[in-house]
Each structure stands twice: as C-alpha cells, then as structure tokens.
Amino acid sequence: MSSGFSIRDSIPSYAEDDCAEALFAAKWPDGFRCPRCSHAHYYDIASRRRRLFECRSCSHQTSLTAGTALEGTRTPLAKWFKAMYLMQFGISAVLLAELICVTYKTAWLINHKLRHVIGEQDRARPLEGSLQLLGEYYGYEYHRYFSDKLVHGALKPQPIVIGASLDAAGGGRSSQNEGRRRS
C-alpha cells in the first residue's frame, strides 16, 4: 500500500449549498434582480433539484445557472467549482474526468466552456501599459513525396502575435492573436 501524496486530496471540497450561495453572490452582487423587469423581490421555488427564482412582479422564472456557462448542466455545482479551481493548472480533460469523477465527455465540455469564458474575459480587457510583443510562425511546411514528385501539403506556418502587458515588477498578463496570411 502506498501512503503517498494524492492530487485528489489537495483539491478543496465544496458543499453544493455553498456553491449555490457563491454563484448567487456572483450573479447578483446587490441582491436578486429579475432579468426581465429588474424587480428585486422573488419567490424561492425549492422543489426542484436546483433552486428556481420567480419574480413577484412579472412571474418570470430564472435559475442560478441561466445565462452562464453552467446553463443547462446536470453536473453538480461542486464539481464545476472543483473544475474551476483546477483550471489554474492547465489540466487536461482526461485528468479532470478522473479528479472530479465525471465521464471524459463531461470533463471535456466543462474544460472547453471554462476556457471559452476565460478567453472572453481576456478579450474584453485590452492590454495596457508597457507591452512586450512577440511575432512568430506556428506550424511547419508540410511536404510529401509521391513517387519522384514533391507535393506541398495544406499545413503551412501560420503567423501569430503574442503580447503581454508588464507591470512594474516585470510580470503581467498575456494575450495572443492569430494573424491571417495575406496573398
């Protein structure tokens, strides 16, 4: 038997109710607001697996996950929160599936949805201050030989630009943008 360190032991555990409260606070920091009429009072419908909120004014029903990357998910919020925690390590879907005990398909979807949200947040905030840029080509020239003829493949190097805004300490956040090849 091994008494070694396990990655699974180092992942924080979250209670489903705590996750729901954190999501409520993130979605409505100033308290509930109906997405349709902006009314502040609601009925709490707790007869479902996940809470539903019904506006007292217009009877519009909304949930905590509506309008978020978690919309329509049947995966428990606690597993989503664990996945959010693990995203900082650049984890693969295979390892994520093992660590949060879901199928590979579910882990792949969670991974891609979270990466999409992170990418949207990065694109919404432009780089500022002192910038460092790097222009490179990604990929390679693809050659194939058929009998004695050289045939060029479709894979050609693609130009990319990677930029980082630097703070006073020399660290910063980065962004990358794929260039388009012009003929």
UniProtKB/TrEMBL annotation:
Superkingdom per UniProt: Bacteria
InterPro entries registered for this protein in UniProt: Transposase_Zn_ribbon
Stretches assigned to the Transposase zinc-ribbon domain: 16-61
The protein's name: Transposase
